[in-house]
Amino acid sequence: MMGGKIKVVLVAVAVVAAGVLAYVLLTKRPIVVPVAAVERNVAVKVYGLDTVEARIVSKIGFEVGGALADLSVDSGDVVTRGQELARLHRDAQQARVARAKAAIAATAANTRKAGANVEKARAVLAQRQADDTRQQELAGRNAISRQTAEEAKRDVEVAAAELTVAQTEVDVLVSQAADAAAALDYETAVLKQHVLQAPFDAVVVARHAEAGAVVRTGDAIFTLMDPKTVWTLAYIDEERAGALAVGQPADGSAAIHAA
């Protein structure tokens, strides 16, 4: 009887011991803690605030006013020097160029006509001079009256004056031709100003107008930025700036906000 009670007590003690051991193993087990590996020659990083800017930022527009017919680029586009960016309505200016060309053609025709008149006047003068020579010889032999000889001399003078007038008309028309050519050059230059071209390789930062809008001379149509002139200005804490040196590489990032 006594031996059975001892067994029961031993079993109870074993159960309690097993429970305590299980509790300890579940709640008091070792925790695995990762240990950072040792690194050598680690670069020191210095952080600061920076701004990204471009030295060349230009607002460009037309040299003449008018209604916008077309815009070929938009914000964010990359453009090359000489590329067409926008165009004004050109019908009226094209008509002015055509009128200037017609004026040149008319002046050229009048110049040719005046030149023919000069040749005619020169031939008449030569004929009058020949007649005068004969008349003077006849007058010297008293074959004709002195009055007839004098009339022949006056005919020469009149023919010479007509030749001078004809040559003057040619000179006037030559001047008019030069003026007409200058007018054509001007109207052609104005026509070219109806097309807006990129003055340099650039990125379109902003577009300030839409097709159909009427713009004045010099109104900004685009803002362009030369990417080759971009530079960064960084603000570094003085306590950390001592480790900086000329030529060290730097990484930068910028937050872009939609307009």
Bin the strand percentage: 15-25%
Question: What can be said about the biggest beta sheet?
Answer: 4 strands, antiparallel
User: Could you report the average pLDDT, rounded to the nearest whole number?
Assistant: 85
* CA-atom Rg in angstroms: 50 Å
Provide the descriptors you would attach to this structure in a database record.
alpha+beta; 4-stranded antiparallel beta sheet; single chain; 259 residues; 2 domains; rod-shaped; Helix Hairpins; OB fold (Dihydrolipoamide Acetyltransferase, E2P); 3 helices
Give your account of this protein's structure.
With 259 residues, the chain is α+β, with helices and mostly antiparallel strands. It folds into two domains: 23-89 and 194-239, OB fold (Dihydrolipoamide Acetyltransferase, E2P), CATH 2.40.50; 91-193, Helix Hairpins. The chain is built from three helices and ten strands. The strands form three sheets. It has a four-stranded antiparallel β-sheet with strand order 2-9-7-4, with no helix packed on it. The longest helix has 50 residues, at 91-140. It is rod-shaped. The model has no long low-confidence stretch (mean pLDDT 85).
